[in-house]
Automatic annotation (TrEMBL):
<dbReference type="Pfam" id="PF02682">
    <property type="entry name" value="CT_C_D"/>
</dbReference>
<keyword id="KW-0378">Hydrolase</keyword>
<dbReference type="GO" id="GO:0005524">
    <property type="term" value="F:ATP binding"/>
</dbReference>
<dbReference type="GO" id="GO:0016787">
    <property type="term" value="F:hydrolase activity"/>
</dbReference>
<keyword id="KW-0547">Nucleotide-binding</keyword>
<dbReference type="InterPro" id="IPR029000">
    <property type="entry name" value="Cyclophilin-like_dom_sf"/>
</dbReference>
<dbReference type="InterPro" id="IPR010016">
    <property type="entry name" value="PxpB"/>
</dbReference>
<protein>
    <submittedName>
        <fullName>Sensor histidine kinase inhibitor, KipI family</fullName>
    </submittedName>
</protein>
<feature type="domain" description="Carboxyltransferase">
    <location>
        <begin position="9"/>
        <end position="213"/>
    </location>
</feature>
<keyword id="KW-0067">ATP-binding</keyword>
<dbReference type="InterPro" id="IPR003833">
    <property type="entry name" value="CT_C_D"/>
</dbReference>
Amino acid sequence: MALDVAAYPIIRTVGIDGLLVSFGDRLGEPANRAAIAFRAEVERAGWDGVEETSSSLVSCYLRFDPLAVRHADLEAKLRALMGSRDWLEAELPHGRRLHRIPTVYGGTLAPQFGEAAAAAGLSEADALGSLSSARVRVTALGFAPGQPYLGQLPECWDVPRQQALTPKVPKGALVLAIRQFVLFAVTAPTGWRHVGQTAATLFRMGDARPFLLAPGDEVIFPAVSEDAFSNMAADPGGGASWEALP
């Protein structure tokens, strides 16, 4: 079913102290870019009474203090901002980063890499080249503190989730499904295939920037050997590096 872009953006009420502005009904590059850009603009505006904002795959959420700002007044500000430009064509905000997170693909550390390659119709060598060179965007954080969803990968990686859960993947696991990566911040079960393993620390309590990644950041997962990974595991940053995006 085709997305009716004419129906968006839309605004919805979330409880007594929340509003949600959505730019689509499924993940797509324009809708995700719009959600990130819109959230940045709300933050820049600094409206009284807004206590928290966040972006998801296609939406921007605002939590506000109903005693400090009337629901109707805040909704009116949002509608004016929604109509101020074509958000599906908006530029991503400044201050983003490009991260490089070294990754071991396959072997004992990432045992479902071969299975994922077969599902994508690729040899393991071609799969390694594709995944290790892909430059993906952090589309949202969720499930655990600092845990990113990243996409979109090339169309060949539109592989379904598994029918059964993998009981546990470790912290730093890079998993794949439906043209997306998820990089695990904690040890947890998953229905996505475990294709890579990193030593990256995604959440550091007390740091000025506690989350390594932010929505809108871009990430490359270059391939490294298991020996190199062992050395990086002792590094507090897990071998990850970043540079500012223009």
